Amino acid sequence: MADHSTPNAAGAQTPDLTARQIRRMKRFDNPWRNPKLIWGAGLLLGIVAMGILGRIFWDPDLVFTGSGLTRQPPVGLENLRGQIGTWAHPLGTDGAGRDVLALLIIGAPNSLFVGVLASLIGMSIGIFLGFSAGFIRGRVDDVIRVLSDVMITIPPLLILVVFQAAYGDISLTMMAILIACFVWQSPTRLIRAQVLSMRESGYVQMARLSGASTMHIMFREMMPNLVPYLFGSFIANVTTSIVTAVGLEVLGLGPQRIPTLGRTIYEAINSGALIQNLYWWWGIPTILLALMFIGLLLINLGLDEVSNPRLRKL
Q1: Is 108:261 a contact under the CB 8 Å cutoff?
Q2: Spatial distance between the Cα atoms of 114 and 237, rounded to a whole number of angstroms
């Protein structure tokens, strides 16, 4: 075999990179060509597209009670009563005669909306508090650090259960705001730690000597270096927010008249779908939730590989 190596400055032999290895390095240097990031974004965009295009190509009014026969199975299957699925309801119906496909088309984007909105609000709070604690320091840092430590010890699901049980039906936006009150601690601690390590760096000191304002240093000098951490924290918060929202909905809390994946699963469990072999009623929303979480996980892993050179394998 030919020796594909070249001598370095010390005279040692170092292997040349093959064309395949070079292509893989370039692939990881370009975030849009990272396979995990592409597959994860594709899954989430597919769910969003289902919510947008589904309203055009499928009748959204089928989410109302009595839109079809109750507990009708998907196409090609037969239920315990001998009913065979039809193309009028390709994924079957629930106990109230509502079309399962219509419930997914309306409910999946609603569940994703709650997670994204809660994460955006939580990240905004975390960025403000994290920069304030890490850059200003002193008593401000002490107060924010203690507050975030205390909030982390409080079980958010228990507080949200008590609050929503007291106030009853709420909107998707209100639910996202409530969840955001419990997802700002992690980005706050992350940003604070990064700012503390960056505030003494050379380029920050040069910006100070040049007379740059505090806001300029934080958001023009430091913020670009925090973008990979912010994206990773945002995706993690979206996952946490969706899990929290689904957990509340499965308990029968949250929006009562707005279709979501968690609400659909709750109604299936509450109606005895598990023991009546009505697996399409709760199984299909569960699979869609799993795909949503897999997409978020792949995006997070892809961002890690793009931003962390140690994770790039040749």
Answers
A1: yes
A2: 11
